[in-house]
Every structure is written in C-alpha cells, then in structure tokens.
Specification:
4 helices; 153 residues; alpha+beta; 3-stranded antiparallel β-sheet
Length: 153
C-alpha cells in the first residue's frame, strides 16, 4: 500500500512542503473558526488555494491570525510521521467521507507533531522546518466559501 500511495502522489506532482503546509492550514482553520477541513484544495509548488465553508467572512485581523498561527506551527520544527490503522479504528476519529469505496482495510494517518492528524496518501516533509514561510497572497469570500491563495517563501 505504501508503494502505491507514493506512486499515486508522484502522479499528482505533489510538492511535499506545500502539501504538509496544507495540513497545518486545515488544523489552524478548524482551531480558529470551528469549520471543517478544506472543502476544495488545489495544491501546487508555486502557489496553492484552499476553500473553507464559513458562515461569515473573516476580517483582516482573522486573515493575519491564520498566517501568524501557521508560521508559528511551522517554526516549532515538528516531526511529520505516518501510522497505519484499520478503517474500523479510524471511524469516529477521522472523516471517512472522502475514502474511496475500494480502499483497503488499512488506512494511513499522517501526523504533524501534536498539531494535526488526518487520513492522507500524499507526500510530506519529514519535519516542518523543511516547509519555509507561509504567505497568504490573497483571499476572498463568496457564497459562504472563504478562498485562501498562498505560497511558500
């Protein structure tokens, strides 16, 4: 399974620092706004975007707080690790809605230190020190969706 996950991730042309940063942004949004993980994501090496369902638009101070919090987590030099558990063990602990119907009984959990953990098959850095600095390029809010565009510098 690990080998297949790596092949799939390579086919998607994932950039491990950006993908790992996505995990940190997701947890930050959950912590700050009580929303779920991104409802849509487009992760690329140069720049990425994440969409979140929020009942109201965040203010500029909120946007600054997202950037500040994500960078604070990155500078903690957290190890990024994986763990394998059964789907049965994952139920109630993780959102299983995006798991493909043909997924194996064993699922992969990616942990960013003590900050975040989720089901994931993607490629990640070994430590958050490899990510760089998170910079929000722009953001907008339409029809209950906050879109954040960002890059790593």
């Amino acid at each position: 399974m690990e080998q297949q996950s790596i092949i799939n991730a390579h086919n998607k042309q994932e950039y491990p620092p950006m993908h790992t940063c996505e995990h940190i942004v997701n947890r930050t949004m959950i912590n700050l706004f009580g929303c779920g993980r991104a409802v849509s994501a487009h992760i690329e090496k140069k720049k990425s975007k994440l969409d979140y369902a929020l009942p109201e638009p965040p203010g500029e101070n909120d946007i600054a707080k997202i950037e500040e919090t994500v960078n604070s987590v990155i500078t903690r030099n957290l190890d990024v690790t994986t763990e394998y558990i059964t789907q049965k063990e994952a139920v109630g602990r993780f959102d299983m809605k995006r798991l493909p119907e043909n997924a194996s009984d064993t699922v992969r959990i990616v942990k960013v230190g003590d900050y975040d953990e989720c089901l994931c098959i993607g490629l990640h850095v070994k430590n958050t020190s490899e990510i760089g600095t998170f910079k929000i390029i722009s953001h907008d809010y339409n029809d209950g969706i906050l879109r954040i565009r960002f890059k790593l510098v």
